[in-house]
Amino acid sequence: MSVVQSNNEWDPLEEVIVGTLEGAANLTWEIGFEAVTAVEHLERSRSYHLQAAGRPISPLAVNKAKQELDEFVNVLKNEGVTVRRPDTVQHARPIVTPNWTSIGGNCQANPRDVLIVFDDEILEAPMAWRSRYFEFWAYRTLVKKYFASGARWTAAPKPEMSDASYDPNWVRGESYVTSEYEPLFDAADIARCGRDLFIQRSHVTNDMGIEWLRRHLEPRGYRIHRVEFDDYRAIHIDATFVPLAPGKLMVNPDRPLKEMPEVLKHSDWEIREAPRSTLPESHPWFHSFRWLSMNVLNVSETKVVVEAEEGPMQDFLSDWGLEPIPVAFRNNYSFGGSFHCATVDIRRRGGLKDYFS
Ligand code: ABU
Asked: Number of C-alpha atoms within 13 angstroms, CB side, residue 339?
């Protein structure tokens, strides 16, 4: 039987890949990165990344984050979850293709962006940033093992990421930086609720990417719901629209849905707005990361890993009948994500079901 088997965000977690901070590099400044940078940070971020791009992140800066990540892994193991780790890839080296060059890569901290599981299939996303072009490499040792166990293995079309893939005239808050030249998506723009998949149009997921997923998955009985939010930095659905359990959807009060999907309009799902984060404004990346408090990881329908200092989120989960498992993780935010981003679930116990009928 395939080791790979997962259909939603909440069934009991049995096996997971947790990212690693080894080999991380300072991101290269590119148009896709600029589009998701908070306006308040634009100048500072641009000048920092223009000079630091492609250089390794110093071990000193990584140490505290590593300690948190190790503790997170221990917590998952104590919950009975099998934890796998990617290979180390050195991202502090240029990426060269026939069309373009990136000074460096990124990191392996966020497997959720790269891989997604639909039942017994593991799928590699095309991605949308040049610095992330080869991020899938670090997972290939694991993916080949999963394939050997009987999993289906699919890679979405590898994009060109040529200049035509981006709209140089994109307008902040009005349009997206990714054009419709070719299918692009990050796996973290998909929220899985059994046969119903919610996919965000964002700066890293275009309509051709959503259409590719539709044609790939609908013949197998999935229903694709395209969603859009009022969010000028839209990237990844997992701090915006978070299904916690059957009938329980947590949403971001600062990022309302532009249009309620029909399937939700006609369902008995309860939708609650997440509480605001306790992250202090003095946190260096406050404007980018204030909603990572929502980036929680279910180990089951009732147990959820949540950041240790997010008291209001812990209370919110308890009030809704869920048990929070607090784990410190804020030093990992500098790598772009929290618990959901830092993982990709490989196996959750339970089958492919309908939750909206
Ligand atoms: N996957 C990270 C999402 C961060 C955010 O939406 O703010």
From this structure: 25
Helix (H, G, I), strand (E, B) or coil at 179: coil
- Verify whether ligand 1 is closer than 6 Å to residue 337 (CB atom): yes
Query: How would you label 291-307 residue by residue, b for 16+ Cβ within 10 Å and e otherwise?
Result: bbbbbbbbbbbebbbbb
Q: What's the 59 CA to ligand 1 centre distance in angstroms?
A: 24
Q: 53-106, pLDDT tens digit by residue?
A: 999 998 888 999 999 999 999 999 999 999 999 999 999 999 999 999 999 999
Taking the CA of residue 112 as reference, the ligand 1 atom at the shortest distance is: 1
Of 233, 236, 293, 334, the residue with max ligand 1 atoms within 8 A of its CB, to mutate for a pocket test, comes to 236
Per-residue pLDDT of 94-123, as tens digits, reads: 999 999 999 999 999 999 999 999 999 999
The answer to whether residues 274 and 307 touch, using CB atoms and an 8 Å cutoff, is no
Q: Is 236 a catalytic residue?
A: yes
Per-residue pLDDT, 357: 78
> pTM of the predicted model, to two decimals?
0.97
Whether residue 107 lies in the annotated active site: no
pLDDT at 15 over 90: yes
Residue 236 Cβ contacting ligand 1 at under 6 Å: yes
Residue 345 Cβ contacting ligand 1 at under 6 Å:
no
Q: Is 225 a catalytic residue?
A: no
d(CA 109, CA 91): 12
Q: Give the tokens for residue 174.
A: 């009005």
